[in-house]
Amino acid sequence: MSRLQHLRRDERGMSFVFVGVGFLAFVAATTLAIDVGMFMTARSQAQTAADAGALAGATALVFDDYDDRSAGGPAVLSAVNTALFNGVMLSSVDVGPADVLFPLGPTGLANRVRVNVYRTDGRDNPVPTLIGPVFGVPTVDIVATATAEASPANAMTCVKPFTIPDRWTENTNPAWDVGDTYERYDNKLKVIPNADEYHPPGTPGYAGYDPERDKGLPLTIRAGTGNNIEPTMYFSWKMPGDDIGADFYRENIMHCNRSVVGFGFLMTQEPGNMNGPTISGVQDLIDQDPDAYWDDVHNKVHSTKNPSPRIFPIPLYDPEYYAWGKANGRNADLRTANWLGFFVERIDGNNVTGRITPILGVIDEDAGPAPAGVFPQAIRLVE
Fold first, then answer.
1. What is the pLDDT of residues 213-248, one digit of tens each?
2. N or C: which terminal CB in the chain sees fewer CB atoms within 10 Å?
3. What is the reported pTM?
């Protein structure tokens, strides 16, 4: 057999060919897998940027200006800046004022913020690929959308163990002010002439506190005496938990009790004088953020903490329910009617002075919908 015939029939070394081809296929598949993983990571990061922008925009509607939806307004600027802060594959997304929209919610309210973020060829910032150029795909486009909603809250957490009455319609000495007293029944349980009226949230005639109208309104609260129902007088109440006494009461002021308090929650009045623990607990809140202050120019709290511990919800009790109970000789019945956002500014003796401010609540899925006119709002992603 000639040498040429021998070489033609010799199969030695073919394994190297198969190994080489297989290795190339393995490298291509591995690189493609890296591309796919990178795309998935980029998509996730873009969604995070959109989510954060939408939530920031909805939060700005609640705390800064609910009606300003302009390109330079706080809602748009907060949405854009927050989305830009969240990078995608070490680069910023492209998002501008035109990418922030305000669609109507299913109830017809203009309480939603939609944010679209881009890393696309059309925005000159596509995501580059590794193996894609071999197949003619040097870049891919990534787009993400998120919608957040500021909806009425039907419950609240971190409330404090003292409560003041909700605002009512003042008929005996109009118009309503913080020096009024709720007057409705005489000692024979009859309604007095020109009696004051209270209508709960969600019913016609509700005149309670409003987060837009009353934002920045100064309010001083002090320990209640007797059975008078006055806007500035608070009653102490026993919060959920196994502990009792002054220390537990003060702890619930200094920190956050995570119990969920809904509408109609009955608050049992705390026995004894809790004025001292109240002042001590509030002072601790001030000490946690001593440099915070109310910015009169922008009508909001200025603080390096988000949120400031000096902002907290005060439960508002139903003055009519309390007055009727007292007129009938019942023990103090304090029924939650709403909540109030409060920024504590200072302590004057036994008085606590602060400002009314918007505040966030929660959505309790086991409870019914929030009635119209509630004070707190809940921020959540809906799309």
1. 999 999 999 987 767 899 999 999 998 887 778 899
2. N
3. 0.83
